[in-house]
Amino acid sequence: MKKLSLFALLVLVVRRDLVLAMRRRADVLTTLFFFVMVVSLFPLGVGPEMDMLRKMAPGVLWVAALLASMLSLGRLFSADYLDGTLEQMLLAPQSLSVLVLGKMASHWMVSGLPLVLMTPVLGLQFDMTVEGIGVLMLGLLLGTPILSMVGAIGAALTLGLRGGGVLLSLLVLPLCIPVLIFGTGAVQAVTSGLNVSAHLSLMGALLVLALAFTPWVTAQALRISME
Amino acid sequence: MLEISNLACSRGDHRLFSGLSFSLYPGQIMQIQGANGSGKTSLLRTLCGFITPDEGKIAWCGEDVRTLAEDYYAQMMYLGHLNAIKDELSALENLMISAGMSGVQLSESDAILALRRMGLKGRERLPTKVLSQGQRRRVSLARLLVSDAKLWILDEPLAALDVGAVAMIGDLIGEHLAQQGMVIFTTHQPLTVDGIEMRSLMLS
Fold first, then answer.
1. Fewer Cβ neighbours under 10 Å: the N or C end of chain B?
2. What is the domain partition of chain A in residue ranges?
């Protein structure tokens, strides 16, 4: 029988998770609506003071994105854990890390990417400039995959625990602080007319670092959780 | 071949078994017997590498399975209590994806043939959530047909199956053993494989 290449395996897992997400659309939409709701509540709560809103915008959007990604992380491995698919994944003869990377990628596509695409609409509520929105989107585009990848480690470690959701947030949120700082820093830099490349480069470096290490660490965490 | 020497395993503070030694050679089948809670599933999960044994060694062709890791996984197939199928996917999708994850590229026609042999003709493209328990089990067992693994580790493979399906699994195991395969399984139902001597191991 023909052996599957690692890339084909990656594509298989991503496709599987995307098909599952499309057939369970409610899960995807709750994350997105949560993000839209949280962000929209701020202009209503703070009132129409444009200066203040403009200053708050990057922070509010980033924190909301962080919370929205926490919301969906619990589901990353739990469904596979409950129906036994995860056991089969651990016995995959090729590479568990590649399988995990595929799950991270599809998790980002259904929970991170929609947030990035929603950002321009939400940015308008805060009267952000076009450059500001552009940099914010770029930052989110680089940063949300990091949230999915770092979050996956937490999701793997808290697998099968009661109250795992809260513990997961406590574990993962502190690790996401650098992403938050560089992401909001980039928008503040562009609004005050400074160069944004430093912030975005650091974010890119974090992304590369996460790509290199988190799949392996998550794979090990899954093996520990399965005992 | 699979060699177990002096294996001990505990869950929590409770020692399930210790000093367990046996070997399984190509063409042999072994049934693990024991009361509920005697550690049958734990033994099988230890053989899969999910559980680290307290003591002892599990060797595949002379090498420790922990060092072999993925080379060992390529030659074994585990079917647990859980079916490992997704309700939202059809029987066909489930089979093709699980074959893919175990490293085998399966064509759609082969997958359909395997499902038909498992008695799921006409139900290949239905979402598995509309299938009965026994039919879901058949979807899960269809993986045995499309795998080229040498060692089958089956935990209660006959649960929820009807008489016809049980006989079919018996035939399937017979074919696998005839091709120098190995099977280690647990069951509470009688399973006969024609012309094969069934070894058994009693856990107490």
1. C
2. 6-225
